[in-house]
Records
---
Amino acid sequence: MAKSLEIQDLWVSHDGKMILKGVNLSLPLGEVHALMGPNGAGKSTLGKVIAGDQAYTVERGRVLLNGEDITGLEPDERARKGLFLAFQYPLEVPGVSIANFLRLALKERLGRDVPVTEFYARLQEGLKTLEWDEEVLGRYLNEGFSGGEKKRNEILQLLVLRPQVAILDETDSGLDIDALKVVARGVNSMRGPEFSALVITHYQRLLNYIVPDVVHVMMDGRVVKTGGPELALELEARGYDWLKEEVAHAGGS
Amino acid sequence: MPEDLKHVADDYQWGFKDDVEPELALKGLTPETVKRISEAKGEPAWMTEFRLKALEIFYKLPMPKWGPDLTALERQLDDFFYYVKPPSKGVADRWEDVPEEIKRTYERLGIPEAERKVLAGVGAQYDSEMVYHKIKEELEKKGVIYVSIEEGLREYEEIFRKYFAKIVPPSDNKFAALNSAVWSGGSFVYVPPGVEVDVPLQAYFRVNTAGFGQFERTLIIVDEGAKVHYIEGCTAPLYTTEALHTGVIEIYVHKNANSRYTTIQNWPTNMYNLVTQRAVVEEGAYHMWLDGNLGSKVTMKYPSSILKGRGARAEVLSIAFAKSGQHLDTGAKLIHLAEDTSGSIVSKSISKGDGRASYRGLVKVNRNAERAKANVECDALLIDTESKTDTYPYMEIENETAQIGHEATVSRLADDQIFYLQTRGLPEDEAAALIVRGFIEPVAKALPLEFAVELNRLIELEMEGSVG
Amino acid sequence: MTEKALLFNPDQISKARSEPLWLEEARKGAYEVFRAVPWPSKKTEAWRYSAGRLKAVPFDLPLEEPRGQSYGREALPEWVQSRISSADFSAFLVFKGADLVYAEVPEELTEKGLRFLSLHQALKAYPELVEAHLYKAIPARQKGDANDKLPALNAAIWNHGVFVYVPDGLQLEAPIGVLREIEAGVLSVGRTLVVLGENARLSYVEEHYSPDLERPSVNLAMTELILGAGASLVHANVQSWGDNVHHLYRQRALLARDASLKDLTVNLGASFARSEVGSELAGPGADSEMLGIYFADGDQHLDHYTLQHHVAPHARSDVYYKGVAKDRGNIIYQGLIQLEPAAQKTDAYQTNRNLLLSREARAESVPQLEIAANDVRCSHGSSIAPIDSEQRFYLQSRGISRLAAENLLVAAFLEDVLGRIRLENLARYLAGAIEQKVGLEV
């Protein structure tokens, strides 16, 4: 199966501190993987580094997208190649309306001018999936949005830009159950043989609605365990401590 | 051209020089110069006297000691050309009659296409004199006057004299005095009671002669219940010598009238731009200043609104974009003299390179201005480490029922915002330009379309390669 | 006033008190500056609203001289008795005129290393400490212009004052205080020097009081606050002079790395008061919170100037000044946030709120920013408004008198400033004093 996203022995530091210490992970096309782990494991860092955040320094290793090394690329180049990061804390950009912004971003994604009709068709579809009113398009990008609205807006961008690989960074945090269902519906509508996603989450809750094919667990800057969906349930039931011991044990032997 | 000016010239779209030989050029600031200007214009004696008196006031008043550094300007004051008459048979009202070289210049600037498209009237000033003035016939029939200031004095002396220098007297400040002594060109606008001019009147100011001072004077009278929107744009070629633009704009907005004055200056970065703009707003009337400052080396400009009648309202929208080597000291004044008056000032500034944008403003509420309300909002965006910004808002309140607020923020172009937009596929430059455009959006959306387009173009140009 | 009336002889002050040579020289130098710079005028930006009042200040009064008085605790003035009974000072000094008339500094604090005495006593007992710090935060010459006039005069002729020194690592929880009364018909020139060593901690309160005076007096006071690395100071200056006092005050704090200052300036009394309060954030991690409360009634003219000068990166400062004016009172606030190019990652805020209670009251507010660094968060806000008539109506409709309602609303308006200074007893005392002013018909 084609490896859509592949992370090879990735070491990353920030402000002189090593955060990722040799991450290996592969995400084949058509699959949805969950990335779980306790706070401070390095999950969000991994998401940002894959998207190209230059606040972090890659010390070693590579990120491959469809077999191409994208480690040194600018964030926008990665986005144009089909990568998408749904932010844990989406930024507010006052004065820039969602509609104008998305049209510009779509133009970049497709590498061509986008006719208004095509653009609106995509928008309408996304809004419908997310049960959102068109009125939101005139609002400024995330300005004055509630936490839930910001997350919904991330998914709207996902639906309009239709990337090949999406990384969802704690998209469930701060959402009530209804909003969670709506967001999950948006992500699920993207699922298919041409789309893969890495769902970063601290809790198993989201995984009831976006059922992953594979679950990875990160601890202290490494992927320490990979399994099926049942692994998420086990973590929910038993917490992370047993895994910590297991890892320590394995490391010690 | 010296190397240090080269980059400015590359960026400055209107920096070409026109091949036009002047008919008369007067250098140096003396009573003789002033007399000869007055003579050349065939003015009545009272105006010659007014000019000479203003010159004396100019000599007496000290240079402003606050704000941008004007010492270099002070040294050059005697080297400027104070009057440069372009070759012309007077003010044309048919485009064909404008001298060929000047016509070519204006066509490069996109005039008079603009007129043909959307404007109610167009005026064009070249160095010291208006070369073209034209107003739509149906407005003329309704009694709307839109002529050069000289023609205003000649043809409508009675109404002219009633308002001229009454709103901005020569003693107001040193540069108002200078303008009063050597003024030349500008517009005279009168809109009769109840007449609404729905599309804008527009004037273009162009400086061509090196080492020249342009001193236009504009007088706008909006009579009871009337409405007008006046737009002014300024450009000049780029010379190695510095130039001076000192305008005086007086506007009288009568009872229940509605007036709007838009100016976007994009002077080259060796121009001193020192302008006095003031409006008197009567009962129930409304006035808006839309002030865009993109060019010039130094700008000092604080459009003011005197809210004289009950319920008068004023609004100021201001944008400044200070690039390297520029100091834009701009702001606004609201003077509340009557009850239930209200005002708002929104100022957005961007500083890039070592550019410095300063907001300087005054809100004054007099003892009798019951229930006056004013709000001031100033936001500054800093692009580079060496960029600078200042805020000097003065609030002087003598009435206990006033409600006055001022809020200001300073922020910088944030890396995380740029990263966020980049992850959506926008290149870095474009992401930065988008954020800057978003920052000024609340003001930019009030701009006439062609200015908005020009402003966008400028921001894109300026943000290219500016981050990273 | 004329310069001639101001022919002081700084030499004589030094000689009369057998001061060290370095101080004599410093006084002479300061006097030169005083002679050289002009008086602040309307054109002096920081003085634009008070230059007229300054002109009317009678600087040619006789200099207040020490008379060697000293009191027993029982003989202290009534207001002092009342303040010390409720202020829970762990140590305090009482000044009458230029004399330190009473001192209560427990032995155990002195043993721990606290130095709390008059500046002239300190010159004798700890000359190196004084020499190392005096004039460091407020030099006689800073800008070389009219702004130096008063600091230079003070530096040249001060003849009473307070010295506080907290050594490295000494952390004092309970506040210490100075209570001072001025007499009629004098020019009183005092100076306070507070020095905190590394990681030292102190709360220090200065209170100034007099009854209404028959003849005018001038109080020209400077306070220098010098905070070592990691030091933490809570400081309050409370001015409740009576009528006929002209109060001219400058305070500057120097904050080293990670030092923290919480300052409160209160102006309730005096005919004319001018307070200049500044913090220089000289080390990264420094934090200066400057609070202010002022209330003008009658014909009082109360002027405030704040300065947040950021020299180092990663520092924070916050000014929060609130004023009330009634009758013909005039309240003024001017403030400047100044960021030097090196002051990246600064957080600086400035807020001024004013409440006008009567027809002839007036307020001026000029919050200013000068920013030469870009990676910063700065904002300022300012407002001037009357009492909310709907709120007042609401309270009145519940049976509260108009005066009581205004009282409540003024207290509510000032409440958040008082709440932010961690001196509960002082906050309670001030709340009472403000209530009196609201109720007072002049």
---
Amino acid sequence: MNNRRQFLNNFAGGITGMALADLLQRDGYAANLNPLAPKKPHFPGKAKRVIYMFMEGGPSQMDLFDPKPALAKWHGQSLPESFTKDLKLAFIKPTAAVLGSPRVFTRHGQSGMELSDYIPNIAKQADNICLVRSMHTEAFNHHPGQLLMFTGFTVPGRPTLGAWSVYGLGSESENLPGFVVLSSGVGTSGGASNFSSGFLPSTYQGTQFRSGGDPILYMSSPDGVDKKTQRATIDAISDLNKEHLGETGDQEIASRMAAYELAYRMQVAGPELIDFSNESQATLDMYGIGKEPTNQFSTNCLLARRLIERGTRFVLMMHASWDQHTNLNKALKANCEKTDQGTAALIQDLKQRGLLEDTLIVWGGEFGRTPMQEVRNLMDPDGAGRDHHPNAYSMFLAGGGIKPGTVIGETDDLGFTITKDPVGVHDLQATILHTLGFDHTKLTYRFMGRDFRLTDIHGEVMRKMLA
Amino acid sequence: MRFVLLPLISLSLMQAANFATDVQPVLAKRCIMCHGGAQQISGLRLDNAADAMKGGYSGPIIVAGNSATSKLIERIASTKDGFRMPPSGPALNPAEIAALKAWVDEGAVWPAGVTIGKSVTKKSTHWAFQPLQKPSAPAVKNTAWPRNSIDNFVLATLEAKNLKPAAEASKLTLLRRAALDLTGLPPTPEQTRAFLADNRPDAYERIVDELLRSPHYGERWARQWLDLARYADTDGFEKDLPRQHSWRWRNYVIDSLNFDKPFNQFTIEQLAGDQLPNPSLEQKVATGFHRNTLINREAGVTRAEDRFDTLVNRVSTTSTTWMGLTMGCSQCHDHKYDPISQKEFYSTMALFSNSFDTDMDAPVPGELGPWLAARPAYLKKRQELLNSAPVSTWFATWQDKMRAAVTKPGTDIEWDFSVTSFRVMFDHAEKVLMMPAEQRSERDQNRLLSYFLSNPSHTLRGEKEKADNLKEIRDAIRKLDEENPKLTQAYVIIPDPSAPPQRIAVRGDWKTPGIEVQPGTLAVLPEFKPGDDPTRLAFAKWLVNDANPLTPRVIVNRYWQEFFGRGLVKTSEDFGTQGEKPSHPELLDHLANQFRESNWSVKQLHKSIVLSATYRQSSKARPEVEEIDPDNALLARQQRLRLSAESIRDSALLAAGLLNTKIGGPSVRPPQPKGVSELVYGNSAKWIESTGPDKYRRGLYTFFQRTAPYPMLTNFDAPDMSVSCSRRRTSNTPLQALNLLNDPVFFEAAGALAYRLQTEAPAGVEDKINYAFDLALGRPASARELTRLKRFLDEQPQDTAWTSLARVILNTDEFIVRE
């Protein structure tokens, strides 16, 4: 260490920024400086990266993934009290009438997975996905539910799944952030707390890509500053910093010089990332880019693929909102029309490119919706929706380490309670970390005198979901 | 299982259980290691009759004469792993279970005087809980070096390791260091010139005194306190609604620090200002410390749950801030490492749970006069508007309907829905609604009326004309309110005599109340003797009582941390057994004593630290020391410290001549790229950019939206303000580089700095560069720097060259570091 520093000090005057970065890298010095340098997990994981498609608000499982013909029989009636005794719901009373689903479910693929007519494209991927019909959570309100899903805890302050992932694995990208957040639709209940680094160093927090303007905040040089000036500026900064490094001997300065080099590389890589001109028209069409209503979500899907191709470790896509308290039939349809094609195209595209086998895809919300209806306006009976339901809901996973063409778990005739293979939020987290090569009980960070982990004191790896 | 047990049960019915031969050995062998004299997990103690019958945190476990309802039997007979007791080793055998069951059924008679095992009273020997020592300043070999007693402690440790302290930093470095540490702002060229010209021996002390007197001192140190108090300008959670008046408490903090309010008083006011005799307005405002907790206004959140989360946060924050303990660990179970029981966690919660959150008028100077003057006309006009239609009748109908929906939910789903949102959006909703109008306070009555005007629900369904009329009246009143002077509000806490007693939440779950607990605190610390009145006030006084060693240690350590980058106890948030031991235990106690003896004067403490030779050392790396002390714990030099996010912003604006130096007042919204606030739930947060001088206020005043914080703050490691933060982490990332390079705020600062070079400096290129260095770095440029920057200027187009140069300087590592 000391020799290296002296070496740097002695030569501080004469090396250009780029050369310094090279030197640092060759020397293995960058690995020490860069907290995002790739790291080995506890054991070889089948997934190397994650695309988490967070469907904010709670998509209705009995209208998409978990067919319940019995609902039609009960439609308009209240559930027996034995069902609803200890039930606490956000808005409706346990006595609310059952709402049958008008959706048509058909079997798909070799697995014969039953899926709804609202998601025809995802349905074509049935043999590539593992559908979990037995998710359950402890939280029945959005923000606590989202915090539980991402941090393992219902109040803010802890690191999120994405932050834990890059904390554990670092990033393969030298030009782009390791943890990227893409959003579509409206803002989510969780906002930045869904990708916060909590008490981990802020290096691990998600970098939010924006749909308008710079994809990364402050990625473009200010107006009137061209590439040449930006490069010359960074070179001058670098030289002054080197001068000062020699003066003070503080290695944090070398680290900052490396950060400025990476920033510059991001400025170059960013525009290339969002430039789809080298994507074939067939690809763009497969995603539904350039047409409505798919354009926004599908653009994020393609960006997600391009990000992971370039080494980003964790992409969190947030689509809001699936919170259909009212107008279920219309609003759910609208959401599906925006997202179904892009989701399916992403799975398909990753598969074609051989990326699906080591990329984990997770699709789902923070909870599900009730078999009972919610009516807010008596004048508009067609506007019925469903309330939040934490006891049983559906999500799906695909790719790295996940068993394709599988259905996990079952619910009762009304989709009210789980009857087989329950999967709790901490179990899902444990399983995700397992696919990445982590023992979830050992990926810890010491804070306030305690070793914290994503799964708190819970969580069990769901072997049935694993390939 | 059942068929195996049956014959045993019948056997037990025939034979009387013998306590001494059948029960006592089982308890002794399998129970009392966890539930005995040495430890009492879950508050349960089975080594003597009285405690065994009392039960644990969840209540009694033995119902004499009824084994079927005795939890003791349920737990030992269970087949469920994790629930069955004992949790490790084999389950009790059927004969043992039968014996205990029979003993309970026969009345659970415990022979008089029998105790099992030994009672152990453990006295914690952990250093932090021991009384403060009064160490005298140690003798040192190099007697010329120490400037005050701090230095004797530091030097003695260094000399013991055969190390010498570093040389003193240059005068310019010292000035910049002290200015940034004490005010969060770099020195101005005028200050630099004056200081350089001052050759008196006490020149440094004089400038330190000047900095301590600066009103910016209060701003800089408020920042640290706001982190601890998890201050923000919004509720947090999904709705994340703005809190328009949070800043009123922030004003209190800034003022208190500027007036050097004794820290014990500062403590008492914030935890219990309302309980002081004849409290002043500011003392009431001070209780806003704990109003900074988050509120979840999602419709489905029960108030009881949210209240519980709030109280957990208040207990944890209090314990982090004043006690340096991780009491949060004891929410669910006894602390694994430190002597903090779950019961004590809820006893501490009991100090806070018998209080009530409310808002009050808290005018700042200049507000009251115009408000009073406008009042009569305002009230008259408002009443006229309300009388222009049968609003009072409609209001009464609305209240009737709402009350009916509260008392008999399920009758009318639409009104049920109205009640659901009323409960979360209106503080203390049910209490106020159900109270007869004449018993409501004027404030509550007005609040309720305003709520009704904005949310009349279905009161006037089908009567469009009347509904429109109501809307017109509402709009007219809103307009009237806007036109009339208003009073700043404060969010405060007051006693709530009607609060139910505090119970333990079994396993930390608010839905499972256990036994009742009395207000109290930790047994490991000096006795809390509140007499008949275990109030927040008694607790606050106890925290700063002479016998309590923890508070002064924790506080001086956290201040020390700000001056050296690490505390004498590195884990400033954790003084428990899992925290780090102090590097200089005697110095810590010495400072703690001094602090108390100086009547808890924070400024005196800061002054003695800043005047010490230890503080004045150069921060340059010392490779020869690094081998022995890589963390610089021994303080053989100062430390280069990256500035806080706020201080980076402030420094850039100050160097640029843009900084608005106004102290206090409402939060502002400096320019921020689109797409940030849009992340907030339902795109509900509107970031309406502040204009004029408000654009250029210190970072401390930037509106903190919890679910979408100002990006520059987050990029530079500001905490998320949901839990108490005792020390910020410092990261070094490419996003920070992008932020400083390309954020329009910093680009504007570069432009403004360039303008100053053009207009304020002499014409020569070197003069201008030197002036830029003066403004930004508090020193002239070196020859090599001049050469390099002149080359840079030559490469740049003439019209933007100076802006580019300013941008280079504002992006140097040195600019965002204090050395």
